Predict the 3D structure of the following.
Amino acid sequence: MIIKIDESWKFHLNDEFEKPYFKELLTFVKSEYTQNQCFPKGTAIFAAFDQCPFHRLKVVIIGQDPYHGVGQANGLSFSVNDGISHPPSLQNIFKELKRDIGIAPPESGNLERWAKQGVLLLNATLTVRAHEAGSHQKQGWETFTDAVIKMISEKKENVVFLLWGGFAKKKGAKVDATKHYVLTSGHPSPLSANRGFWFDNKHFSRCNDYLVSKRIEGIRW
């Protein structure tokens, strides 16, 4: 099966696509999308890669699952389609942006504008069954996204990894911190944020300060 993903990523991931686990994963995903309502839409499964080509990559933000409500997921972690209400975690991300660098919360929660500047908004699991959080976990996606993170760490330099919450920290554990800038904090979900583990982490300004120090253009958050 031909994987429809941006060519700059396909070059680095072709070997992964040929592994038995990935072929089994594709069989599972095809079956799920045939038999159930799943998100994001099929053409957006690899949107995080398509919107952020490998050569443009500057920042990685790791999420867990796509949103499982109708019309929400667009293939980018924490992002929702235009016209969709901002989920609680995204609301807190925008609140921290306001506190950190003074940017007012935008009307749209679609983060494509970040992705196109070089922010890889990567969910650990790229698909989900409608209204069933975690329903596509442990089918192979986590193995694939671990391989993506490892490949980025090995083949790139000076990438900023924003690891929010325990799950993301575990996913990013193999990032070579001698080559990259790793920032960690609590998750932006209300449970974590309201306990003081999210707000005032200043990840957005710290990210740009690092990029500029390496003569890389910062992100227009």
In short: The radius of gyration is 17 Å. The chain has a mean pLDDT of 95. The chain has one domain: 7-214.
